[in-house]
Specification:
10 strands; 32% strand
């Protein structure tokens, strides 16, 4: 595994004794994978270790993930008390997840609810959206609305109702609106940084320990197209 980068690069959106939320950058992986690249979880552990001068191993639970080319909110559990409760919140859809996406092709409707059945192809690491149920498929639902018309693109706000593999990417492609930079799902050219213009913008839920409403918003990455969305 490669050397862990300095925790100074972390953009911390929220932190208390039980939770820490990070604004993930393009290219960061949330948990370790076959690439051997240092995951965000290890960088956060190092930050906690240094901040609190912890001598031993640091506990950090990973209740959800974001795709590597995607940016935005990733939340981690700092305690073994918080993790199973967070897992339950995500499993039971008791979190409200809002994404922003940049697309080039204008959708037929300014707002809509999309329902597809997604079938994952593990070899391709890709999900295909079908209009009717097929073998081994999972139902996927999202709501979108056009937030803003840019010079050459459209900004969508997406309310994710289910959490499927590559759900937003595959469902938008199914209606002819692939996300900017997403070669895997049909956009015609890549972004310079290798990312895609999909950002986990907002996460709202009841704090698993404090039992208080919590809403976290992630600032947009710095680039001319995202800058035009502010």
């Amino acid at each position: 595994m490669k050397t862990v980068s300095t925790p100074k690069n972390l953009q911390i959106l929220y932190e208390d004794n039980h939770l820490i939320a990070i604004n993930k950058r393009v290219g960061d992986i949330v948990q370790g994978d076959k690439t051997g690249d240092t995951p965000l979880s290890e960088i956060v552990k190092l930050y906690i270790k240094q901040k609190h001068n912890k001598p031993g191993n640091v506990y950090l639970g990973v209740p959800h993930r974001l795709d590597r080319p995607t940016t935005g909110i990733v939340i981690f559990a700092k305690t073994s008390k918080a993790l199973p409760r967070l897992n339950k919140l995500f499993a039971e859809k008791d979190t409200k997840k809002t994404y922003w996406a940049i697309i080039k092709q204008q959708p037929k409707k300014t707002q809509d609810i999309l329902t597809h059945w997604l079938k994952r192809n593990p070899k391709q690491n890709k999900s295909y959206a079908h209009s009717t149920e097929v073998t081994d498929s999972k139902k996927a639902i999202l709501a979108y609305r056009i937030l803003k018309k840019l010079d050459h693109y459209f900004l969508l706000e997406i309310d994710l109702k289910t959490g499927r593999h590559h759900q937003i990417r595959s469902q938008l492609t199914a209606i002819g609106c692939p996300i900017k930079g997403d070669l895997k799902y049909g956009f015609n050219r890549s972004n310079k940084d290798g990312g895609i213009h999909l950002h986990a913008r907002k996460l709202a839920f009841i704090h698993p320990v404090k039992k208080e409403p919590l809403e976290i918003i992630a600032p947009l990455p710095k680039d001319p197209i995202w800058d035009a969305c502010n």
